[in-house]
């Protein structure tokens, strides 16, 4: 984006810092519109969770929202066309922070079907895993989440 457009975004959205990608202010704008207990789910690159340019967005999220689920999809086919990105699904709610599901999906997870994956992830979130782990999935339930702008974990490190 050109300098004038970037400057306008930086003026409107305090999370747009450094070399932030355009999706950073979109996260902020969407989250600001949530009513209490409202939820947004995003699928986009996960670099903001790890890199310096995402620090203000991480701080924004951790001071007013609940990270519910983070699903790393680096080897899954998240988009119809090949893209050069490290996709992740991030589910964020306007609520107090509780346990977080940090998961990794590979391309084999597609065979499980979305209903089965959703049920399994909800079971993990509530600490009630009773079934078999779907092929191509790995997940853990994290009891506490970050309270600062520190980088967030990925499933590769859990």
Categorize the overall geometry.
globular
Cα separation of the termini: 35 Å
- H/E topology pattern: HHEHEEEHE
Per DSSP E runs of 2 or more residues, the count of β-strands stands at 5
Q: How is the quaternary structure best described?
A: single chain
Arrangement of strands in the largest sheet: 1-3-2-4-5
Low-pLDDT windows of residues: none
β-strand percent reads 15-25%
| Total domain modules | 1
Work out the radius of gyration.
16 Å
**Mean of the pLDDT scores?**
85
Structural class: alpha+beta
CATH architecture: 3-Layer(aba) Sandwich
Helix content: 25-40%
CATH class designation: Alpha Beta
Task: Identify the CATH homologous superfamily.
Answer: Vaccinia Virus protein VP39
In DSSP terms (H or I, runs of 4 or more residues), the helix count works out at 4
Classify the fold: give the CATH topology. Answer: Rossmann fold
Q: Major β-sheet, in short?
A: 5 strands, mixed
Task: Explain this structure.
The chain has a 5-stranded mixed beta sheet, with helices on both faces. The chain has one domain: Vaccinia Virus protein VP39 (Rossmann fold, 3-Layer(aba) Sandwich), CATH 3.40.50.150. The protein is built from 4 helices and 5 strands. The protein has helices at residues 3-12, 23-32, 55-62, 114-125; strands spanning 39-45, 66-75, 87-93, 100-106, 137-142. 28% of the residues are buried. The radius of gyration is 16 Å and the shape is globular. It is an alpha+beta fold and 158 residues long.
């Amino acid at each position: 984006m050109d300098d004038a457009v970037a400057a306008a975004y930086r003026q409107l959205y305090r999370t747009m810092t450094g070399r932030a990608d355009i999706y950073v202010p979109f996260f902020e704008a969407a989250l600001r519109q949530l009513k209490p207990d409202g939820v947004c789910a995003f699928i986009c690159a996960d670099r903001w969770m790890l890199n310096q340019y995402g620090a203000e967005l991480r701080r924004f999220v951790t001071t007013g929202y609940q990270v519910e689920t983070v699903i790393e999809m680096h080897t899954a086919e998240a988009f119809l066309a090949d893209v050069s990105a490290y996709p992740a699904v991030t589910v964020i709610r306007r609520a107090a922070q509780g346990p977080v599901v940090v998961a990794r999906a590979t391309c084999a997870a597609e065979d499980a079907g979305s209903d089965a994956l959703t049920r399994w992830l909800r079971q993990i979130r509530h600490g009630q895993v009773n079934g078999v782990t779907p092929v191509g999935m790995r997940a853990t339930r994290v009891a506490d989440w970050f309270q600062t702008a520190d980088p967030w974990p990925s499933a590769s490190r859990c």
